[in-house]
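Q: I have four molecules that I believe assemble together. Could you output structure tokens for the complex as a whole instead of separate predictions?
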Amino acid sequence: MDVDTRLLRSFVAVAEEGSLTRAAERLFVSQPALTRQVRQLETLLGVALFTRSRTGMALTEPGRALARRVPPLLADWDGTLREARGAASRAERVLRVGFLASAANESTPGIIAEFTRRRPGWRVEMRQAAWSDPTAGLAEGDVDAALLRLPFPGQGALRVAELLEEPRWVALPSGHPLAAREELSFQELWDEPFVAAPPDTGPWRDYWLAADERGGRPVRIGAVTDRPDDWLSAIANGYGVALAPESAARFYARPGVAYRPVSGVSPSRVAVAWAPADDGNAVVRDFVDCCREAVTGPR
Amino acid sequence: MDVDTRLLRSFVAVAEEGSLTRAAERLFVSQPALTRQVRQLETLLGVALFTRSRTGMALTEPGRALARRVPPLLADWDGTLREARGAASRAERVLRVGFLASAANESTPGIIAEFTRRRPGWRVEMRQAAWSDPTAGLAEGDVDAALLRLPFPGQGALRVAELLEEPRWVALPSGHPLAAREELSFQELWDEPFVAAPPDTGPWRDYWLAADERGGRPVRIGAVTDRPDDWLSAIANGYGVALAPESAARFYARPGVAYRPVSGVSPSRVAVAWAPADDGNAVVRDFVDCCREAVTGPR
DNA sequence: CCCTTTCCATAACCTGGCGGCATGGATGTG
DNA sequence: CACATCCATGCCGCCAGGTTATGGAAAGGG
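A: Yes, here they are, computed for all four components at once.
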């Protein structure tokens, strides 16, 4: 008996939401499509999985049995997928490196060059991650190493080598009154609206709002973005200000956006991270070494 | 990332066969269809799974990684499916009973009637199994109990209650010289061609050929069938003879086929079986009790 | 040396399935 | 009584997958 895992994911979503309508918008499909997916799964199994009512979709007994076993199954499949992809990149001698836009900087080309020198035949594949993923794909097993910023959620489950520390500046609309100043104190920004990362990034979002360095005062959110472009636009359009690493002033310079040093807020730290499973992986270790030397050696 | 399990089964088949052509005929699809399925899976994963050559399809390293993990995954899914179906039948108060055509007999209606009396609200669903499955779906978890014949392969993994013993007779073309006799000895049949069950039924096939009661002499196979209809036709058409339980003479009477008692061959035994997991299942126990009483009580 | 066989890939065609939109029916709610 | 909320259904357009027919490459046999 064959199924598409999409049907199973849909089933799980409906089971969790208890509603076709809500599950449909969570899955970005129309509600009729979900209706048919659920029905199809039921026909396929020959089992009624839900009892329909005006109040929503309630699991039947066999539905509960299925809902208990399907999520681990899907997790297993996802793991299998990652493993196969990992094997493929190893076989092709490709090192997959994820990076946050803000964590790669001037030294990146040098790192790659040095790594390529040490590992001839190997190729580095750089993958820029969305801000909604502070581990740049490392936590999901999509990459072998990641250039990212500390701290990030789930940091304990990964190996981390800190590379450098960088003061946090503020990016603000160039027309903003505070932009006239050469330097600001963080306290002056407490009541400004901020452009923030999406809520599901948790500690990452809080870190760039410096939520715990505001003496307990609430944060005003002016806009939510998860890509550099949107982030710059939101600031330029005056929706709010945002903390950013000093290097952003060089990499994300843009008319309408001004960067100023901020005192009274802890600096940001750039690090390279890898999975504990790769502790014995000489290629990953080489890459990490290259990162370390790029910030210590040449200086 | 979503996949249809059909793609995974196809992948496993190709990996095992090492050839698209052979895998295609095993899966009952055309070879171009399989070509596209494999290609689709590779595109989906973004990974080359096979290296093609005139000599066939050889797994790549990531292909081997996948081939290692997918079969357990599919087995897990099949198990989940069985579990859900089992839960459904329990919730609907349906007892699923598999039976071999030759193992159900005159007492079956009485068994069902008695069970229904003891378990009002419950319904018995009788499912006839193909001869290729000597456990009548019990080993696969498709049924809760099974009426079958002993011995069968994998018998040790199931609970069995023997119900009755029945002599084995022989079914032969009515025009066959030996059909003129009232009774035969098995030894007289040693050189006759036999109509046999498919090879993949293993011990089951051997049992009905009485392969180990021939004093080491080889068996001549006249035809292979896995359904009663084909079996009767094969005998009537003179392709061979076959051993059968005495009751077959009543249930499978047919012009052109004669049944005669055979001496010198051990009798067949009918039993009811269930899964060890259902040892504590009162409903299954009731059904087994009904079976036992049907053959002991009334007599 | 050529012919045949055995692989896999490709092209052309056709059907069925799936998704989206619009709408309907049932049922609580202000 | 109108409205909001949910799920089901009808219709339409499109893509995906299957089949048949065919091609090309390579190995084995006469």
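A: One point stands out. Chain B has a mean pLDDT of 89.
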